[in-house]
Amino acid sequence: MIQLSGINKTFNVGKPNEFQALKGIDLEVALNEVSVFIGPSGSGKTTLLSILGCMSRPTSGRIWLNGREITGLPERFAAETRRETFGFIFQNYNLIKGITVLENTMLPAYPTGITYRVIRDRAVSLLEKLGIESKAREPVEHLSGGEQQRAAIARALVNGPSIVIADEPTAHLDSELAQRLLDIFAGFKKEGKTILIACHDPLVFESPVVDRVVSMRDGRIVENDH
Amino acid sequence: MGNVEYELAETAEINAENNNNDISLCALCEREKQSRKFLSDMKWIERQRAFMDFTLSSLWRRKVRNLSLLLVYALVIFLLSSVIFFAHALRKEAEAILEGSPQMIVQRTVGGRHSLIPIDYVEKIDQIRGTSSVKPRLWGYYYHPASRSNYTIMVPENYSRTDDIVETGAGVLRTWGALWDGKLYLKAHDGEAIFLKPINTMTDETDLVSADLILMSETTFRKISGVPEGYATDLTVRIRNERECQTIARKIVQVLPDTRPILKEEIIRTYSSLFDWRGGYVIVLLGGAVLAFFIFAWDKATGLSAEEKTEIGILKGIGWDTSDVLMMKFWEGVVISLTAFLLGVITAYVHVYFVSAPLFEHALKGWAILYPKFTLRPAVNAYQLAILFFLTVVPYTLITIVPTWKVAVTDPDVVMRH
After folding, report:
1. Closest-CA residue in chain B for A85?
2. Taking a contact as any Cβ pair under 8 Å apart, which residues of chain A between 105 and 144 contact chain B?
3. Which of A220, B4, B149, B372 has the fewest CB atoms within 10 Å, counting from its CB?
4. Cα radius of gyration (chain B)
């Protein structure tokens, strides 16, 4: 269970361009479910996911993950939690250009101290599972959009996270590729993973794989459907 | 055995067993601690290997930028270490040559200038306690108009050849010009022509001081130079105890006030400061290049591109913490600066000791017409190299870390908005 209580996030505090992205969010997210956060641009979806995934800290409020508070973790422990508990799939994939698909996939595991061979085997098996093992030795910029996204998914899974966070995962995909991605998410759900998605694509939030839809607007939760 | 004794024995046995258990428990704890430490050490090594692996692919991605940086960096190190190696090797060479020379040379001065010294001074100096031998020395210069060069002419101790044979340094025949029937043509002090058969007997090792040397018999020397009988150019004094040199020099001046004793250590010091001065002069000239390099390196290393900033954000987003990013950048700095250092130093070593430093020899060896040709014996001053290392590798590595740290300490969520 992920619990959020009174989460506020303000950017540029005290400056003329101060902006409150989240306003008093209270939420409980069940594990082993697919939850989708929907809302227009600027509604606070991405900010909420980044706070949930220990990427940034709330200005106020508290977060618990399986009963353990993760709100004000020191940077080192926040990074460790981010690395071991969460897997991120970014909107623009955020793969590192110039290095191979395999190296990109292995990157999150480098700071863990696991031996190189184990990381490589793990990455190769993930790429096999996602059907892009033949591209493992190619630089990521040679891949198509769909292949890049699968590489990004493989990277998100290399440390075996229990929670996968995806920000606008279908933004650059056609309907067929978007459906294939949802099938992948369905597979994750079967494996017992929790999936948190920020999205405003009806193909995603109307999909039967989704358990819960949270609507957001102006930094607040306006609807919370199961 | 009675009951009491039996119980006592049993208790002792149980205690011993407990003690053994305690000891084995402690041993287990200790073993576990050791294995945990081992595992944590292994993890650290694996992490560094992984960071290094990523660093190398990262460097290779920007190969044009990094290779140009590496080349310029290596060139600067090469120039600096060449000067250091060369000046040091020359100093060592001079020291090696002067090692066997007498501890003191006594000259006579007239009007503040070096003048010929009467040979009967030998006896007076010989009477001073502490001297082991005093010998007159005949040497001077001979100007040869055909080659427009000055040669050093000298009478060695125990010269065994006849008056018409001279021993020459490697540079003499190279520059002398045409020989007269295989003989050197010289003009005596009174204008008379003298023909001398040259024999090259000197080795390359002594070329630094013997390139322009012509050794001859005393009779021939006096004929060419005009030094009259009973006079010598100077006197060499050997002293039993080197620590007495100063005292003996003082005594010589007391007995013979018109003389000037020159100690061997003073000659070595003069050579040393001459080469240091020349080395310093070249380093000052190179100062501009070094400064230009550091401005270039500073610009390259501190100005993180937008791409690099995004990459740091991505790495943080996928679970790297600030120290991991800094470690990766540290390795990047180490790889570039250490490679440049090794490349520069090794090339300088080859340049100085294998091809006799063609880039610097004119500036460092001197301005004589007769440039000595010789291969320097490798002599590396570890202290100077260490200073060069700390002045080049360390600052570069540090300046690459600072801008990365500035970017790496920001929250990684910016990557979500990229």
Report:
1. B319
2. 106-116, 119
3. B4
4. 36
